[in-house]
Amino acid sequence: MAKYVGYKRPKDTKKTLKHLFAYLGMHKWAFLSVAVLVFISAGANIMGTYLIKPVVNKFITPGDMHGLFKAVAGMGIMYLCGAMATLFYNRLMVKTSQKVIQEIRKDLFNHTQKLPLKYFDAHTHGELMSRFTNDVDTVQEAMKLNQPLLSEDGGHAGCQNSFVWVDKSNVIIETVKMAEDDDGIIVRLYESENAKTKAHIFFGEKISSVESCNCLEEIKQTIETDGEGFEITVKPYEIQTYRVRF
């Protein structure tokens, strides 16, 4: 029977950070691009604020409308460049952070497959699950810090809807993302209250097929669907992953 051993800090914090920075280093050019775009965005905002005083003093007060038009046009172009830089660094940061998390989870899964059985006897299901969800998500949240949500057109003003939801509160939908091979949507969930649970997963649009898969998104079996969702049975603290096609 598994024995709860609690959560501890890394035995070697420097080594842990070194491993983390190694993952980040694989995307150094992406992070460098983000830094440049952040500099452009911040510079445009600062310059726009600074130029208000000379525009007022040199063009508005003397009544130089021709010069005012040129100054406003120049400021508009500068603000446009800043807005585009903000858009691109937000999107690039989100995309890069997802890649880093995917690489960490893949290596973690491969490492787990090589652990001896005594490791699983000495650790609870919840602790093992935490390695794939809570611990890795901490890295993800750190990378997304101060990154605003990106919105897309769709829906109607004043309405509320969810792309996917579940009818049991103890079943947590942890990840919804495109499959790595772009074939469908990956939905990853887990049970959070140490209780075997039957639940129904609902979608906001018609689905054509559902397949269960492992953490590497390799297909295990086909799941029956009613076109709007599918039934699942999840064991205590179990992680489940599904590939959904529309």
How would you describe the overall organization of this protein?
With 246 residues, the chain is α+β, with helices and mostly antiparallel strands. The protein has six helices and eight strands. A five-stranded antiparallel β-sheet has the order 2-3-8-5-6, with no helix packed on it. The protein is elongated. The N terminus is likely disordered.
Report the uncertain regions: 1-6
Question: Structural class of the secondary structure composition?
Answer: alpha+beta
* Share in helix: 40-55%
Query: Count of helices?
Result: 6
| Average pLDDT taken over every residue | 79
SS strand fraction: 15-25%
Shape: elongated
* Structural Rg: 25 Å
Q: How would you characterize the largest beta sheet?
A: 5 strands, antiparallel
Widest β-sheet, arrangement of strands? 2-3-8-5-6
Q: Can you give keywords for this protein?
A:
elongated; five-stranded antiparallel sheet; alpha+beta; 246 residues; 8 strands; three-stranded antiparallel sheet; 20% strand; disordered N terminus
Give a short overview.
The protein is α+β, with helices and mostly antiparallel strands. The chain has helices spanning 13-25, 28-60, 65-113, 117-121, 125-132, 134-143; strands at 164-166, 171-178, 185-191, 197-203, 209-213, 219-223, 229-234, 239-245. A hairpin with a 6-residue loop joins strand 2 and strand 3.
Compile the SSE list and pairings.
Blueprint: H1 13-25, H2 28-60, H3 65-113, H4 117-121, H5 125-132, H6 134-143, E1 164-166, E2 171-178, E3 185-191, E4 197-203, E5 209-213, E6 219-223, E7 229-234, E8 239-245
Antiparallel strand pairs: 1-4, 2-3, 3-8, 4-7, 5-6, 5-8
Helix pairs in contact: 2-3, 3-6, 5-6
